[in-house]
Amino acid sequence: MERYLLIFCYLSALVSCEFKNEPEVIQLEQAEENLMNTDSVVVAQLIQQSQDVFAASQSNTKAFDDYLREAEQLALENHYSYLLFEIYNLIGQRLRNQSFYPQAMQYHKKALEIAGVLNDDCLLSEVHNLIGVVYRRIDENSKALEMHMKALQYAEECGRYFNNSVALNGIGNVSLNLQRYRSAIEYFRKANLISEQEGNLLGMAINVNNIGEAFLNLNEPDSALHYFFKSLDYNSEIGSRVGQSICFNSIGDAYASKHQNRLALDYLLKALEINLEEGDRMYIAVSYMHIGEAYLNDNHLTAAIEYLRQGLEVARKIGSKFVMEKASKLLAEVYEKNGNTLLALKYFKQGAAYKDSLINEKNIFHLSTMEAVYEQQAQQSQIDQLSSEALIQNAKLTKQKVWLWSALCFVLVMVVITSLMIRQGRLKHKNRALVFHQRLLRSQMNPHFIFNALSAIQVFILENDMEKSSRFLSDFAKLMRQVLKSSNYEYISLKDELEMLHYYMNLQKLRFITPFDYKIEVDSELDKSKVLVLPMLVQPFVENSIEHGLRPLGGGGNIVIRFKKRSKGITIEVDDNGIGIDYSDRIGSRADKHESLALKITKERLDALEKDSRKKAVFEIFDKKSIDPFDQGTLVRFKLPIVYYDRNPKILQGDD
């Protein structure tokens, strides 16, 4: 009634304003302001009513109910951006908790647009954290990490420690998903320290439970139980039913790992009861999975299958790869126990596929990169602060200039004298280390490849594919024989190198389900028996092309390895049509700071070749899009002096 009375007063004043003097115009403006203030109060009350109704019956209430629809309409009419931001985030959170992730993302992105227009760091921090949680729920770890890192930066800008704590917790959860448990514990402890300082019991409950999860994954169930019960106390104090169910699940999982299965089931069934009441399908799937695991450990296979299948079904509906991976793995164990090997193999492969999509080198690399970027920005901020302090102290430094230069000259003289004294010793040590590095690379295949090769043989044997097993073992033995043979020489003939490459590529084609083709092209001008090359020079780059260039394509991959004669030497190229690389970031800055062992040793081998031949050896690697925007893939190129065999393979007769 008050709202309509104010509208009437506003309209009356508007009609008669041309007949009123200046004080009455001021009264009109005040009426308009009061009306807007009243509308904002109405919107806030509608939001609160929606929250009260939703809290009373979450499973039977729409996320976007009539209260919020009316609140949204009023907020849009009056341009209440902050209240619209709150409405959209509230709807997004409700949809997320009901496992409607695409719809939740739509509303959070609406809130993100509003925060961007307002240019409010606190709002940007809040919504980036919420988007990160949605990405975590669907196991998009790299995107979740990016959102939480941005949230952390915005939180530090606006000084809101709560958002800072939420972001640190989110980064810890991503680390937990990627099996970096010690790193996750450190992030959770930092987040919990902020929650303790702020007196935030909910934040403390979440963080200590997460610390317990990390310890449980580290096979330390007693430490994990300490944190789980501590979290349960916090959740009981604030009356959080969802928090209690999470703790019951965690405690049950810890007791199951200690083989106290009856006690584990008591807690897990309590968690399931709460989760069914609350209606969050993510937690329901987790409960089914843990109960199935407990029955499996207690050797009740029928009950285990029933609960695990229910958990897998719910996980598939909501797209939770983590639950699908673990439930599939547990079902494989159950069927293996009851002798159903076909179903066991089916679920084992299914779980392995989900695991590959959850944890891969790309995610690990992305995590490391984002951490490095954040640390670099933090260091830059410290450098800027120190620079400011240095300007203040400039007068004092000027007075000490003479002493500083004298000391610097003394240090330089000492460095030169010391360098001259130990130069010969260092050169000898460096040469010995270089020889050992070269022999290390030549005398061993990639242990990761050997492990995968043996695993592939095991799968072929399990699937009774004797033809592939026999062919794989034969090629594998030939390749090992050639590798051991070449380890005794600094150079081998081009013919032997080509033979090793054929065996290696055939093994890779057998091992990978994702099909790809390869071709090795050799100029007719090159005498394969007389031309010598460094053994296994291109193998690390061929493996990288297959693993990180062709495999994500899912098919249609192709690698071409070329040996071309040129007027001043030989060119070797590894050319693929894979997803390519970021030329500036992953070859420029990353090559300087995060150079791999294989890349480093390759450069050292080329340096040794240059010293032996007194000719230039060039190594290049780049994304093909940097040359042709319509092309894709990676090109690795070596431009080397030619080495000919002349009774002694170490004698070089190279073209310039």
Describe this structure in words.
With 656 residues, the protein is of the alpha+beta class. The protein is 74% helix and 7% strand. The protein has helices spanning 2-15, 22-56, 66-78, 81-97, 101-118, 121-137, 141-158, 161-177, 181-198, 201-217, 221-238, 241-257, 261-278, 281-297, 301-318, 321-337, 341-358, 361-392, 394-399, 401-443, 447-462, 466-486, 494-511, 539-550, 583-593, 597-613, and strands at 492-493, 516-522, 531-533, 557-566, 569-576, 618-623, 634-640, 643-644. Strands 2-4-5-7-6 form a 5-stranded mixed β-sheet, with helices on one face. A hairpin with a 2-residue loop joins strand 4 and strand 5.
Concise overview:
The chain is an alpha+beta fold.
Task: Write a concise keyword list for the protein shown above.
Heat Shock Protein 90; disordered C terminus; three-stranded antiparallel beta sheet; disordered N terminus; five-stranded mixed beta sheet; 7% strand; 656 residues; alpha+beta
